[in-house]
Amino acid sequence: MRHFSKEELAGIYRQRKLKLIDFMKENGISAVVFEDTEGRRNPAVRYFTGHPSDALYIITAVPDEGKDIPLKDFLIPWDDNLAKEKSLDVQIVPFNKYDRLSTTAVAKTLSSLKMKGAKKVEIPPETPYPLFLKFVDALSAGKWDVLCREKSAHDFVVDMRAVKDEYEIECTKEAARVGDHIISEIERGIRENWLHKEMDVALLIESELRKCGCERTGFDTLAAGPARSWAIHAFPGYTDAPWPADGLSILDFGVVYEGYTSDTTLTVAKNLNEKQAELVALVEKAAEESLPLYAPGGKINLAGKKADEVFARAKKTMPHTLGHGIGLEIHEFPRVSAKQTETVTFKPGMIVTLEPGLYDPKLGGVRLENDVLITETGNEVITHSKIIRL
What we know:
By secondary structure, the protein is an alpha+beta fold. The chain folds into two domains: 155 residues, Creatinase/prolidase N-terminal domain (Creatine Amidinohydrolase, Chain A, domain 1), CATH 3.40.350; 227 residues, Creatine Amidinohydrolase (Alpha-Beta Complex). It has ten helices and 20 strands. It has a six-stranded mixed sheet, sandwiched between helices. One of its GO terms (molecular function) is aminopeptidase activity. It comes from Treponema saccharophilum DSM 2985.
């Protein structure tokens, strides 16, 4: 992928922050708090700063002295050394300074700004009620109005993240490239007969992604042989059962590069009977007919309806949506479904999955999933998952 200098990345983060600041000013919000902690993970911390995990991020509509920008922001990390290495263009304040108490950290940081007049701070909408009350108490001395609500700055950021910028697209394409390499290795292992079990393929993925400079899998790998492929998401993710074997075997995995994940599913079709072959053909047809509808300005629900129509003609039903956005999280806005709101459309810069699937307790399951970048003129399929026929 193209190399981005620290200066370029700082500029990208700055542009993201300025979009949020515009929203804050339009809505009279003085400060917004983002929290990335166990039980309440929010990738917006990484989105705005580059810091990968475990931190508070506070952005304020207060000009930073000496900097020609209408904001002052703070990163309060659990690991100071990691923050200094990974974050850019943000003031780092050690969490230890506040005894690792988020309420204390937010209250003391905001009090240092010495803002006057009406002051509103938005905390994450998923904040538990007892913690919300602690924030209210901690900020009462500074006369801050604490907001914990839907349709907030946090929701605005979710919408922002749905449309990827140049850096995000490059990172996701690199994750896709590594994923394609792994798919090729898996197919080679199948045809050369050195992949035999679900755990073999799962451990191969883990090994190869690390060799290629990726951080981790995007989610727990799902490798299900014919005895378990009827489940949309097999549980457990993988075992020591044969993979592949006669029938339908599914593999669903993603790899993460610089925070951004791919998401692909391939099916191995080995010595199928007529009914199993029909499932495979229907899934391929649904993918083929739905892909042209992944286009800029197109209503997202129409793509979902197209896949449903393909299956309905064969008296089949897909038990999940056709796709979803990907990025810093494995499931992001938008959801690609026939039930999606009429007003939600594909936009250039979105990266969404296309993953039709059918599942039968007796026949097994088949799913074909690839990642699709919406462009100005159409789309680009950036992964190359497939049906491997044996």
